[in-house]
Amino acid sequence: MDDRHLARLLDHAAEVHPERVAVEDEHGRSLTYRALLEHADRVAARLVRWGVGRGDRVGVWLPKSLESVAAIHGILRAGAAYVPVDPTGPVARGLTVLSSAGVKAAIVSNAVARALHERWNSGPEPRLVTVTACGETPAEPNPSNAQWCEVLKDRAPSPFAPERSSNDLAYILYTSGSTGAPKGVAHAHAGAFCFLDWCFETLGPFHARDRFSSHAPFHFDLSIFDLFAAARAGGTLVLVGETLGKSPAALAEFLRKSAISVWYSAPSILALLVKQWGLVAAAQAPRVVLFAGEVFPIEPLKALRRTWPSAELWNLYGPTETNVCTAYRIPREIPADRTMPFPIGQVCQPLEARVVDAAGADVAPGTIGELVIAGPGVMRGYFGMPDLSREAFVADAAGRAWYRTGDLVCDPGDGCYAFHGRRDRMVKKRGHRIELGEIENALQQFQPVDRAGVV
User: Fold this and answer.
1) 441: which residues sit within 8 A by CB, 6+ positions away?
2) DSSP annotation string for 103-152
3) What's the gap between Cα 171 and its chain centre?
4) Which end of the chain is less enclosed by CB atoms within 10 A, N or C?
């Protein structure tokens, strides 16, 4: 039996805090840890009955909800890896993600189930668990499908199978691809625990009384902290739905009322809250505020610091392939004359970082070069893309593989890295990675378009 497996977090939380609220949504619905464990185990039971096990992939194509959280934990408890799909994105892209991951089953909304059945054309159609949202018509009976309410009647499996390993695949997060096809970043349980260990040692302590925000969508890597740090602490995960998360006025009011103590989002969200809607200090301001995914301009950050003077503010950096790999603690007072963004900080141990030139050789301190990362938190590779996986790494003289982030940084000599842009054509939008080549590829699918260029 391997304790370094994400399924163990829910086991432990349900044992120690069975009646504590594990997850609640913006509409007031909630599940205790005992209830979440029961829901997850019944999902796992259905998946196991369908032959899902270690190494298999299961899609999650649902709006953020109690059901989607239970689905993710259930997939992990079945020994499989979860593959989240953007519920607000085009159906064609979602189908591409599930097909690329070779999912054996998927947990989807009723509307998606119909579209998936009608448009699936890449091998055996995955078995489906369908979730009917409020106001939706239940799915038509289908021998390969199961309704969520039916699944919850399944007999739960044994709590934890001893053959599960920390080296098993845990999740695949799909990001934009320069060739037009999304690429799946594959992480093992051990990599997730590497990140969680650092979080609890450096950003914490976190407690069972903490209320963790869940602003990032589940197909975005910020959600790894939200989902599993909350479970590890035995705290409450407070879900911010897709619509609420993009409405600064409503989100500011929600933040005032929700008593969140640990907040994590892209800087643009915090900047909108402060600048456009005059977010004022809440009665209970977050104790810890984490931001990542893009550069935080200095003026909005100053405003945030003035709004929450007592909060611990952390600038976290890292591509999906490494999760967070460097971090910088924002000082209590930001000098009024500061005009430049803060650095991305020092490497998160036990990860290691270097700054290299185009050939992979170390550059001198004070020289701009590409940041490369090695260690147990780095991805296993891009799922089903061995050539692209090899291209993503550079080997040192000893043969050790280092992930090429594509980000240009400078180390002045003290190991505190400053960000200096990209070496390729990737841009960031609200923290999301977008390859300009993918947009060009999409434009060129329209017959009248002969050539396309995106800048």
Assistant:
1) 179, 180
2) -SEEEEEHHHHHHHHHH--SSSPPEEEEEPPTTPPPPPP-TTEEEHHHHT
3) 10
4) C
Please confirm whether the linkage preceding 205 is cis (ω < 30° from 0): yes
- Single-letter amino acid, residue 409: V
Contact 349, 356 (CB under 8 A): no
- Alpha carbon distances (Å) from 379 to 173, 346, 450: 10, 20, 37
Whose tokens are 């701009």? That residue is 368
Q: Is the dihedral of CA 268, 270, 275, 277 positive or negative?
A: positive
Q: Which of 72, 14, 60 is nearest to 232 (CA)?
A: 14
Instruction: Determine the straight-line distance between the first and last CA of the chain, rounded to whole angstroms.
Output: 51
- DSSP assigned state of 278: -
Strands (E), 215-310: 236-239, 262-265, 288-291
Residue 253's contacts (CB-CB under 8 Å, 6 or more residues apart) are none
Residue where the block lists tokens 């940041």? 371
Indicate the residue type of 353. A
Please write the tens of the pLDDT for every residue from 33-54.
999 999 999 999 999 999 999 9
In whole angstroms, give the CA distance from residue 238 to residue 214.
Answer: 6
Per-residue pLDDT of 344-379, as tens digits, reads 999 999 999 999 999 999 999 999 999 999 999 999
Confidence of residue 1 (pLDDT cuts 50, 70, 90): very low
User: For the chain, give me the number of helices (H) and strands (E)?
Assistant: 14, 24
The set of long-range contacts for 97-102, using a CB threshold of 8 Å and a minimum separation of 24, is: 97/59, 97/174, 97/182, 97/184, 98/59, 98/61, 98/126, 99/123, 100/174, 100/181, 100/182, 100/184, 100/383, 100/384, 101/57, 101/59, 101/172, 101/174, 101/184, 101/383, 101/384, 102/57, 102/384
Report the C-alpha gap between 375 and 356 in whole angstroms.
17
Residue with tokens 């992990």: 76
| Whether the Cβ atoms of residue 430 and residue 268 lie closer than 8 Å to each other | yes
Per-residue confidence at 449, pLDDT binned at 50, 70, 90? confident
Residue 234 Rama label (left phi>0; alpha psi -120 to 50; beta):
left
Instruction: Say how many residues make up the chain.
Output: 455
State CA 451 to chain mean position distance.
Answer: 34
Q: What is the DSSP letter of 156?
A: P
